[in-house]
Amino acid sequence: MSPKEKPKIDPSSIQKILIVRLRRIGDIVMTTPALNLLREHFPAAEITYVVDDPYLELVEGHPDLNDIIVVAKKLKVTGFLRHIRTIRKRRYDVLIDFHGGPRASLFTFFSKAGLKIGHRIKYKHFIYDITIPRESEEGYIHSVESHVNLIKALGISPSSIPKPKLPSAKALEAERVQRFLRRNHCLGYKLITLHISAGNEFRDWGTDKIIALTDLLAGINDAKILLIGGEEDKGIEVEIVNKSSAPLISSVGQLNLRELREFISTSSLFVGPDSGPMHIASSTNTPIVALFGPTLPAHFAPWQAKATLLEKDVPCRPCRQRKCVHKDFRCLRSITPEEVYQACLPHLQSA
Question: Whole-angstrom Cα distance, residue 96 to residue 151?
Fold first, then answer.
């Protein structure tokens, strides 16, 4: 921060804090270390989180939050105005925009919060009282550190940054996961949770490679392979189950986000690409084998997790995931099933 950007509010007077991070899974997970530090330094403050409704389960019941403002994914003008009236009525002392997107910026601009903090984004400087650069002159900043840099504007100087923290599954959700594991005779086995998708083609390792990996993992004694994914992954789930020679157990499209975390936390290993579920896994004690393609671990590695990261050094990395210049997604798909299998073995042998 420059001298002109010192906070305009005394940290000791902060009673109400509003956090804006509307989406997506991994991005929300990576705000939680900063949220934890906010609660630690402002134990009596009322902290509210603004989030899109598909991601509510990531923050609902979070021990560091007092309240949540849930925003419809397709927000109409009337809904936006209703939220703005609520936010203005509560008179927040501080608003921290962890998002920076168009809708988040509008919430910030119209909030009338006493102090507005956000990243230094082109054409949006006027919205915030304090802006912090996303990058460092020394190189890449991890997304978790980037969020923590925003709260440092409030005088917070942490000696360390904690792991991501997510709400625990509700009792009925935890029991539902246990019933699933009992029904599929998983108890007492080494469970390998395998994420079969990643939301876009740039981070899609390829169905053929997933099938080859399951065939290799099937040779591990006392191990069972559990497939995870969203409802949109049902098509590739069918292909994987039909073509793999391994006995697979699938929960694709069956779990909410809290149940997914509970599912991963019972596993011996999580395997998948850089994705929302990978970041959910980082909030557990389950080891991770993560595949990185167009994104860089320097930005998005699972924070404070026991993890093995696989990546290939190709000159086009990182990219904006809009067009593959080689048209073959080689950054990710040149990682072989054998390489992933070998990365899994040390974690499973120690499980």
Answer: 8
